[in-house]
Design a protein that fits this description.
Elements (H helix, E strand, L loop, with lengths): L7 E4 L1 H4 L5 H13 L2 H4 L3 E3 L26 H10 L3 E7 L15 H11 L3 E5 L9 H14 L5 E4 L11 H4 L3 E3 L8 H10 L12 E3 L21 H13 L4 E3 L8 H7 L2 H7 L8 E6 L2 E7 L4 E8 L5 E6 L11 E7 L5 E5 L2 E6 L4 E10 L1
Parallel strand pairs: 1-2, 1-8, 2-3, 3-4, 4-5, 5-6, 6-7
Antiparallel strand pairs: 9-10, 10-11, 11-16, 12-15, 13-14, 13-16
Helix pairs in contact: 5-6, 8-9, 9-10, 9-11
Length: 374
């Protein structure tokens, strides 16, 4: 089954925008393998917008820009596949892509066949320049059907930014993941607002169709295409990554992994956090507390495990008490939790009744937990 778990990979847009090339993609494929990202589950390498010429050819076909991709897109796909990765590309449901290149409106079946012939495994499908007279739901359904008719298994990543309440219908039209938010920028306000906007949509994500909160900005530190406002700190990135994993969101890296610092690389390769995101049940978190910018969650995992999350999305230090009774484990039960810090791997031992945590602004704490008698 495609997208049995939240898809993981790398996308070119956040850092490079239109500055993409065959050489860059080859180097990124090498880095994804050599630096352990593929082994950790990041299997899709996706070229975003700006890969084609400004116009179709005389047969109405999309044409890769020969200056950027001199050997054609099939050669790029072949290189990516030889590295053990899966190859992704970009188009749009409107008349033009967001950067003004030819798009797939009224060309769905033609373009899907083209992508299949190039060996594409993943299609990100945007929503710019969409006609006022168009029907978004029908156009996403049309591309889903075109991909099915292409003869190749292609993951359908729908990106209409949550317009038309798309979380209510993207699963039924065949999307494997769907954007439910506007674009992310590399600052705390952007990613925290995106996360908070999805609290009401926790249940709209499950195996085969995941709620996509946009590409990660972890490790960018203000560099690249989506740097805007105050750049994130490492603590911000820990909180961003933890939120995405807690919500079982697709993990599409947006930074330049060739230049990623060791701390941010280790964060995105953290086995405990990835286990939370990639849990086979993909259950949404249950919100325990929402108070003045502090949020607490419990998330059921498979094999009798749980994840506990405490997030300080405020601008001040907060002392937080997680009462186990609010997790369904009252004092009279005789049970508590055996806890492990998901980020550091430290075993915190057995606790009963409650847990106190002090978090500075923007900090988070994620714990793996098992029920135990105490």
């Amino acid at each position: 089954m495609l997208a049995a778990r939240a898809p993981m990979g790398w996308n070119s847009w956040n850092t490079f925008a239109n500055n993409i090339s065959e050489k860059l993609i080859f180097e990124m494929a090498d880095a994804m393998v050599d630096m352990g990202y593929l082994a950790a589950g990041y299997e899709y390498l996706v070229i975003d917008d700006c890969w084609s010429l400004r116009d179709r050819d005389e047969n109405g076909m999309l044409v890769p820009d020969p200056e950027k991709f001199p050997h054609g897109m099939k050669a790029v796909s072949d290189y990516v596949h030889k590295k053990g990765l899966k190859f992704g590309m970009y188009s749009c449901a409107g008349q033009r892509t967001c950067a003004g290149y030819p798009s797939s409106y009224d060309h769905e079946y033609q373009d899907a066949a083209t992508f299949a012939s190039w060996g594409v495994d993943f299609l990100k499908y945007d929503f710019c320049y969409f006609p006022q007279s168009g029907d978004p739901k029908m156009r996403y359904l049309t591309m889903a059907m075109a991909l099915k008719a292409s003869g190749r298994e292609i993951l359908f990543s729908a990106c209409n930014w949550g317009t038309d309440e798309s979380w209510q219908w993207m699963r039924e039209v065949g999307a494997h993941m769907y954007r439910s938010t506007g674009d992310i920028f590399d600052n705390f306000a952007s990613f925290s607002q995106i996360a908070k906007s999805q609290f009401k949509n926790f249940s709209m994500s499950s195996p085969a169709c995941f709620n996509d909160m946009d590409m990660l900005t972890v490790g960018m530190y203000g560099k690249g295409n989506v740097g805007l406002g105050d750049a994130c700190t490492y603590d911000d990135y820990v909180t961003q990554f933890a939120l995405w994993t807690f919500f079982s969101a697709p993990l599409m890296i947006g930074g330049d992994i060739r230049k990623m610092d060791e701390k941010c690389s280790a964060l995105m390769l953290n086995k405990n956090l990835l286990r939370i995101d990639q849990d086979e049940e993909a259950r949404p978190p249950h919100m325990i507390k929402d108070d003045r910018g502090s949020y607490m969650f419990i998330k059921h995992l498979s094999d009798g495990e749980f994840a506990l999350g405490m997030f300080n999305l405020s601008e001040q230090r907060i002392d937080m008490e997680l009462m186990f009774a609010d997790c369904g484990v009252p004092v009279a039960s005789g049970f508590g939790f055996e806890l492990t810090d998901a980020v550091t791997g430290e075993n915190l031992g057995k606790r009963r009744d409650d847990l106190f945590v002090s978090l500075e602004k923007h900090q988070s704490k994620v714990l793996l937990a098992r029920l135990c008698r105490v």
